[in-house]
Amino acid sequence: MENQRSSSSQVTNKVECQGDHNKIINTGHNGKIVQVDHVYISVPYVIKELLDGMKKPLSPPTTPNKKPIRFRKLPGVINKMTSRERHNKIISMGPKGKTAQSDNVKVPVKYVIKKPYLHTARSNCIKKQIKHRKSLGHTVENKVTSQGNHNTIINTGNNATVVMVSSMTVEKPLSRAERLDTPKQRTCRWILDGLNQLSANAMFDECNEKIGRFFQHTKDPDYQAVLWVATANNCINAGDMERAGEALSNVMSLLDQTENSIEHELARDHFQSLIYLRENKYVEGERLTTRALCKTEHLQAGCMAAWILINHGWFYTKRTIQEQDPHKQPNLVSVATASFRRAIEYSDREFPGQLQDNKSRIRQFALIGQVYLLLRCWRSVDGSCTKPGNKITGKDVAKARKVLASLDPDKGEPLCAICMVLYHLANAHLCYRLNKYQDGLKEAKKARHLAAKGSFKQYHGFADSIVKHFERRVA
């Protein structure tokens, strides 16, 4: 460190600290501060002899296998160091002072040192000496303040340089809580997967019969919760929303008695939001899925969370279609697209060998949802739902065609009965966007036939309205 004397200026350098590891530094004119975390400082011992005039000089500490580090006396400078709380340092330095700070220094509560010997062990990354020079005729103050843990705010004066070197600490995100995978819960998922498969393929009577048999042979709350969830799903697919709501109320009454309440509650939220979707209660449905997704943030991913994401994507698809402001639509499209994509990812992380049919249907519903989003079609392709603000590009149409090609049941995996109805309706929407009304009419009639065959009442009405629209176009 080099010292240059001046008789006509006054420079004050200050370092203060408040809170754990927070640093406040004021440097003088042309001052330079180098802060290095994990640099160890040997603070001179403050003993009575120092305060009385330093009867005994201190011996400089040495570093193993290295040359002794010499102290240099700073004439006419008063440096003070105090400490508040654990590891907090307050240092006031006069002109020509030099400071290196470390968070890992334990200092006594209070130091008052006159004409101190200050020893600094430098970090390997700092090689240059720090020069403090006085400026004639005026005083410049540099300030460094800090708020919160490890936050630093620096204001420097004229020609001052501040070099901050510190190791940043990044908090690790909280790990997700593991879902239960006990033999009982594996059985619950096996039962639910099989019953939902029957219902998705329009085998409502057989599904109800099996549910009744299971109820007769078990009083366990977890098994009963799963059976009520399956009952609600079967009623929704058959078009009986009132009975579905009653079944979901029974699920909620059993939650406190179950071992896997979080998963049963997510299943309830999924099917309740599905009821809202079928009843066109989009605001209520979006609120419910948003709350349900908060529950999944710190839970191991799986099919139940994926179903919530599917419905969340459908609600945002509806909002996209209804939104007339072209500046707001991109954000809605982004949320819906991300929901469908994450749903597939979550389903792939389900426990190996469990809910296999659910995993397959989640992928199918997610891809069909993307097609409806790209084509901006919902309840009908008629003018009342295909509004002027919902203009789509040729790129959107090309993407939709590509997704539908990946779902072709003749080339890929078989689709469940509900997905087959939605698949043909999506093809009808694509034909509408391509102005191929004759082909669209054929696809719409296929969807109506499958909906009638499977007794999917709501889908039948949906398909019938599209058939009538194409008939008017063709005529």
Straight-line distance between termini: 94 Å
The CATH topology label of the largest domain is Serine Threonine Protein Phosphatase 5, Tetratricopeptide repeat
Strand pairing plus helix content: what structural class? alpha+beta
By oligomeric state, this entry counts as single chain
Strand content: 5-15%
User: Spans of 5+ residues with little confidence (pLDDT < 50)?
Assistant: 1-29, 32-59, 76-142, 380-389
Number of strands: 11
Task: Write down the overall mean pLDDT.
Answer: 75
Structure description:
Helix content is 48%, strand content 9%. A hairpin with a 7-residue loop joins strand 9 (143-145) and strand 10. The strands form 4 sheets. Strands 2-1-6-5-7 form a 5-stranded antiparallel sheet, with no helix packed on it. By secondary structure, it is an alpha+beta fold. The model is unreliable at 1-29, 32-59, 76-142 and 380-389 (pLDDT under 50). Helix 4 (221-238) packs antiparallel against helix 5 and helix 6 (261-278) packs antiparallel against helix 7. The N and C termini lie far apart (94 Å). It contains 14 helices and 11 strands. It has helices at 48-51, 183-200, 204-217, 221-238, 241-254, 261-278, 282-296, 303-322, 329-348, 356-375, 394-406, 417-433, 437-453, 457-474, and strands spanning 13-16, 24-26, 32-36, 41-42, 78-82, 90-93, 110-114, 119-120, 143-145, 153-155, 161-165. It folds into 3 domains: 1-168, no CATH class; 175-372, Serine Threonine Protein Phosphatase 5, Tetratricopeptide repeat, CATH 1.25.40; 404-475, Methane Monooxygenase Hydroxylase, Chain G, domain 1, CATH 1.20.58.
